């Protein structure tokens, strides 16, 4: 949130049960680790932070060279070994979770990456951007939409569901 923290809520009671601090700017995105015992946050401070729910603490920080551009979206690979961060400088940084090192940079967008989603079967890394495109970096497919703010997909990975600046929900089909 805008308080630089990530809060964990009990959905039954509506109460905040844990607060994780560490960021120096707004938290823009969050994603659970595949096992569910940790989560990653993306922030305007340019970092991705990994938090352990059981230990109630930060366990890793993934920091790119420049903090001029923040991180807007984050997701894990199917195994949890890779961590993807979508940044305002139009690129995706791929991090090795265990080594805490960047292993790749993915290019292709012409404006900030606002959303990022890896498919449940691990075969696609999809992004939405303010450049009005959706990209699947595994297949190379590109779809044209409004400025994308949020992105998700069903388990079949035949479609992407987006919400954007046009105030509409769009279902975009991708070929397998």
From TrEMBL:
Record-linked InterPro entries: G-protein_beta_1-5, WD40/YVTN_repeat-like_dom_sf, WD40_repeat_dom_sf, WD40_rpt
Classification via SUPFAM superfamilies: WD40 repeat-like
Superkingdom classification of source: Eukaryota
Database matches in PROSITE patterns: WD_REPEATS_2, WD_REPEATS_REGION
GO annotation, biological process: signal transduction
Protein name: Guanine nucleotide binding protein (G protein) beta 5
Lineage: Eukaryota, Metazoa, Spiralia, Lophotrochozoa, Platyhelminthes
């Amino acid at each position: 949130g805008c308080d630089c923290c990530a809060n964990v809520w009990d959905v039954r009671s509506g109460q905040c049960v844990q607060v994780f601090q560490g960021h120096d700017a707004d938290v823009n995105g969050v994603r659970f680790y595949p096992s569910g015992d940790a989560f990653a946050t993306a922030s305007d401070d340019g970092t991705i932070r990994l938090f352990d729910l059981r230990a109630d603490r930060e366990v890793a920080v993934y920091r790119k060279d420049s903090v001029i551009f923040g991180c807007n979206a984050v997701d894990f690979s199917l195994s949890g070994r890779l961590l993807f961060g979508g940044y305002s400088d139009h690129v995706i940084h791929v991090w090795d979770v265990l080594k805490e090192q960047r292993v790749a940079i993915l290019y292709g967008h012409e404006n900030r990456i606002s959303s990022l989603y890896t498919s449940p079967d691990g075969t696609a890394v999809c992004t939405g951007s303010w450049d009005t495109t959706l990209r699947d970096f595994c297949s190379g497919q590109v779809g044209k939409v409004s400025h994308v703010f949020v992105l998700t997909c069903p388990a079949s990975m035949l479609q992407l569901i987006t919400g954007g600046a046009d105030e509409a929900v769009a279902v975009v089909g991708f070929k397998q």
